[in-house]
Amino acid sequence: MIPKSNLNDSLELVDEIETSKTYKILIGDSKGYIEGIEALKQAVYKVLSTERYEYPIYSFNYGIDIESLIGKDYDYVRIELKRRIEECLLEDERINAVNNFSFEREEDVLKCTFEVESIYGNIILNKEVEF
Fold first, then answer.
1. Which architecture, in CATH terms, is 22-130?
2. Is 82 helix (H, G, I), strand (E, B) or coil?
3. What pTM did the predictor assign?
4. What residue spans of the chain are helical by DSSP H?
5. Alpha-helical segments (H) within 14-56
């Protein structure tokens, strides 16, 4: 005999965006909280500053693989850096797109500037890589 239930079979699922409230991190100081676009800027900074696969506390989807670009050709680094930045930032559900990449080379340093389109608005950020 199969038990019968009074539950309605047509449950509605609602997607909710988790709060972005987080501790504010300053070098040498962590006072207060931030949220919204400031919390997102901090999250992007943290992701782009964390080497992927390096720390067991983070999943393999967190961080960016930069070390493998050291010693590679400039054109390869430029193409791969763009792809890797997009890949790691789009893991964050608050980020809709990463666009408008520009690159500037100074000897063995590649400076990358890009725009992050988020649910809070757009922000322009940068990342430097030695290759």
1. Roll (3.10)
2. helix
3. 0.76
4. 37-48, 74-89
5. 37-48
Query: Which two structure tokens, joined as six digits, stand for 1?
Result: 């005999």
| C-beta separation of 113 from 99 below 8 A | no
Residue 108: partners with Cβ closer than 8 Å, 6 or more residues away:
130, 131
Find where tokens 């520009």 sit.
102
Rounded to whole angstroms, what are the CA distances from 42 to 47, 62, 85, 112? 9, 14, 15, 18
The candidate with the shortest Cα–Cα distance to 99, out of 85, 120, 78, is 85
Among candidates 120, 49, 38, which has minimal Cα distance to 88?
49
Q: What pLDDT, in 10s, does the model give residues 13-67? A: 677 776 677 766 665 566 788 899 999 999 999 999 999 999 999 999 899 999 9
Give the N- to C-terminal CA distance of the chain in Å, as an integer.
68
Burial track 54-79 (b if 16+ CB lie within 10 A, e otherwise): eeeeeeeebbbebeebeeeeeeebbe
Residue with tokens 């990463």: 98
